[in-house]
Amino acid sequence: MAVRMAKISEKELKNCVKHKLWGSNHPLDKWQFGDMLILYADKKLAAVAEVIDNAFADLTPVWGNGLFPYRIPVKFNYYLEGDKMIPFNDEITGILRKEWGYCYGWAIIAKRPMSKEASEKLIKIIAEKADKQPC
């Protein structure tokens, strides 16, 4: 199981939750059933999604900020909205810097899988804020 992290706007995150999809401009053929995606919006941890099916291509508009024709079905294990989202703090940036160094943003953009240790810490932070209630 791979765990990746991605940046998204709060508005487009709502579309992902509504349609139960993650979209990309790049093929998602390396993504597998059970892989996880930690999403953040406006430098705040916001959601944890799990891949539940195979990737596919589709040209139907879903998001308002781009087509993102390569898609993969996901279920949201945790989803924080508005003031429930968790601002990046020293603990979160420390986890990311330990994982990928000070240029951790490039690893996020490239959707590089993260270590089990780092992903478990970030998912735990989100789960605790979500009162351990998956959506």
Q: Give the overall shape, derived from the CA principal axes.
A: globular
Can you name the CATH architecture? Roll
Overall number of domains: 1
What is the top-level CATH class?
Alpha Beta
Number of helices: 4
**CATH-derived topology:** ph1033 like fold
Largest sheet: 7 strands, mixed
Order of helices and strands: EHEEEEEEHHH
**What is the CATH homologous superfamily assignment?**
ph1033 like domains
Portion in helices:
25-40%
Query: What class, by secondary structure content?
Result: alpha+beta
Gap between N and C termini = 21 Å
Description:
With 135 residues, the chain is α+β, with helices and mostly antiparallel strands. It has a single domain, classed as ph1033 like fold (Roll), CATH 3.10.590. The chain is built from four helices and seven strands, in the order βαββββββααα. Strands 1, 2, 3, 4, 5, 6 and 7 form a seven-stranded mixed sheet that branches. The longest helix has 14 residues. The protein is globular, with a radius of gyration of 14 Å.
Summarize the structure.
The chain is of the alpha+beta class. The protein is 30% helix and 27% strand. It has one domain: ph1033 like domains (ph1033 like fold, Roll).
